[in-house]
Write a structure and sequence with these properties.
Length: about 400
């Protein structure tokens, strides 16, 4: 019988890209997978055909030999017995990536959790196990981000039960080897032409069963407890920065190492400053007379108060840049700038003499001395002229 063309088997062209080959395989594999077609020998054979085709066409070297010499060019890759999953399927990780979500590859004990007794096996659950990493979201003031700080935080933590010391068994008793899996934590069964290794349903993968659970933790070996930690916040942290605190995560099981704690920083809104990366922004009130005649105003910076020179005739809203007066962020080179937006202040609670002085100023002023008002008037005239042109 003539051997079927691999491209025809996958339903793709000879010029197909690597991604197109993978997509074609995914479609066929999901259709003919034995888990979806139990006891269907035709589907099982078809699944083997498409997997053999994918094994060749997903490997650049094998594909090149196949394109040049046909099936004879790749037979040596499979050996005298032809293609076999348990010996020749070197692209297992690709298959796990393609089908893992459908068949439990996310760690739920599915068919690809331990394909053919190989693949990515989980470590034994009867020995020491490392604790999980934890993440804590922390809000801090801008001052803490700029100058550094020290904070105490309290976290709910799973710790070894003080009654059973983490064993889960009532004092005076001990766990027993699971009879269903013989202490292996998994059971292996045949599924067509390959084997399936799944988590033992009796012990949940632990390999041990507890006949007399601890009264305090009910066999869990752990209980929740609050733990207070001191966290050092270094200078220059920013929103989204992650501080790693080694060994302060969840404690390990049966003597395993503790996980790490990751503290994610979030800077609160500030009364004066806003942040944009390493630049700072603030708005500074400027008296009417200083804006008109020129002068200096005080503005805050991380280094202390600075004198900002205001030119005569400075309009409200003008932004001044103070180079190098922004933030120095941890892990970044250089320093940001401080941008100061001027907000001209109109005087209030005027006395009679002050009112007269301002009235005299008004009487002596010309349109040329208020260019902003003049420009605005021109825009208004243009708007209403356009309105008339439209007959509105």
């Amino acid at each position: 019988m003539a051997e079927k063309d691999y491209y025809e088997t996958l339903g793709t062209s000879r010029t197909a890209t690597e991604e197109e080959v993978k997509k074609a395989y995914r479609k066929q594999a999901m259709q003919y997978h034995p888990d979806r077609n139990p006891n269907d020998k035709v589907a099982e054979a078809r699944f083997k055909e498409v997997s053999e085709a994918y094994e060749v066409l997903s490997d650049p070297e094998k594909r090149q030999r196949y394109d040049r010499y046909g099936h004879e060019g790749v037979k040596s890759s499979f050996g005298p017995g032809g293609f076999e999953f348990n010996r020749d399927f070197t692209h297992f990780n690709d298959v796990q990536d393609i089908l893992g979500n459908l068949f439990g590859g996310g760690g739920g004990g599915g068919i690809f959790d331990d394909f053919l007794g190989g693949g990515r096996r989980r470590g034994s659950r009867t020995g020491p196990q490392p604790g999980s990493d934890l993440q804590f979201e922390m809000e801090i003031d801008l001052e803490e981000a700029i100058f550094g700080s020290k904070r105490d935080i309290t976290l709910p933590m799973a710790e070894d039960c003080t009654r059973c010391h983490g064993s889960g068994a009532e004092p005076g008793t001990k766990s027993e080897t699971c009879r269903h899996c013989g202490g292996q934590g998994a059971v292996v069964s045949a599924s067509g032409f390959f084997q399936v290794r799944q988590t033992c349903p009796s012990c949940g993968g632990a390999g041990q069963v507890i006949a007399s659970p601890c009264r305090e933790c009910r066999g869990a070996g752990r209980r929740k407890a609050d733990r207070t930690l001191s966290i050092h916040i270094p200078r220059g942290v920013f929103t989204g920065a992650r501080l790693r605190v080694p060994g302060k995560g969840e404690p390990g099981l049966r003597g395993g190492p503790s996980g790490d704690l990751y503290v994610v920083m979030h800077i609160k809104n500030h009364d004066i400053f806003q942040c944009d990366d390493d630049d700072l922004f603030c708005e500074a009130p400027v008296p009417f007379d200083v804006a008109a005649l020129g002068g200096e105003v005080e503005v805050p910076t991380p280094d202390g108060v600075a004198q900002l020179k205001i030119d005569a005739g400075t309009p409200s809203g003008k932004v001044f840049r103070l180079k190098g007066k922004g933030l120095t962020l941890s892990g970044h080179s250089g320093r940001g700038d401080l941008m100061v937006r001027v907000a001209v202040q109109v005087p209030v609670n005027l006395g009679a003499a002050q009112k007269k002085a301002i009235k005299d100023l008004k009487d002596q002023s010309t349109a040329a001395q208020y260019p902003g008002s003049t420009e605005f008037r021109k825009k208004m005239d243009s708007f209403y002229r356009r309105k008339r042109d439209l007959g509105a």
